[in-house]
Amino acid sequence: xxxxxxxxxxxxxxxxxxxxxxxxxxxxxxxxxxxxxxxxxxxxxxxxxxxxxxxxxxxxxxxxxxxxxxxxxxxxxxxxxxxxxxxxxxxxxxxxxxxxxxxxxxxxxxxxxxxxxxxxxxxxxxxxxxxxxxxxxxxxxxxxxxxxxxxxxxxxxxxxxxxxxxxxxxxxxxxxxxxxxxxxxxxxxxxxxxxxxxxxxxxxxxxxxxxxxxxxxxxxxxxxxxxxxxxxxxxxxxxxxxxxxxxxxxxxxxxxxxxxxxxxxxxxxxxxxxxxxxxxxxxxxxxxxxxxxxxxxxxxxxxxxxxxxxxxxxxxx
Length: 317
Fold this sequence. Notes:
The protein is of the alpha/beta class. It is built from ten helices and 13 strands.
């Protein structure tokens, strides 16, 4: 079934060593959710500059709606300088005080959110009071099925308060294992020499929130997910040649949410999300085409990676 899924947040240019590429986690997510047959809508703000014009053309080339991308006559279009370590893990320097820090709470945005089935947001967009306050107004207007927080913690772009406020407003929390380590400290989890106990972590966060689901991505080790009702599942990753990890986490989020919107269980949501993330990581660029038939064909033949031993108990739960 086709649903309306809104992503609120940054649309920006990733300034890679090989050149500029349009991105931002919410934009990558919307591109992927739209490719699955849903109505993916990006809410953001671009500068009235050349980069803004170029971004708008790409959005339209991707056949995404552009009517909810505001233009800013004062602030420039967002950019981020991206570099990589020897393992191809990206590092980001996010330029502050740009157009997406000034998203306005327009009446048409409230109407959009009132009719949406799902809303996805993160913490970067809340680094400015202006866009944070607009987000909170839109959350008040939202009456759909899921509010998904893809936390995406970036240096100097979040606080403990913004993390707790965001989780308090969400139904689904998606994060990676590094972010789970940080949140474990915030939610009072004792340090462990063997690494964070994800089941215990989920219990602690559920106890201090109204979240319905938590999903933790583990890179090439798969994904762990939990429900408030006590369901705990782990699914290993799929084996693919790593080419470019940018956008793979956003693809996982799109696949995971798609499965939930189609009334699939947590195990299938993790499996479908893993497949999308793996396929995106195996190709160059965060927005190379990838449709549902190709994902289904991949799932039919894909090799499953070696399970993480500490989570094996959750594989058949």
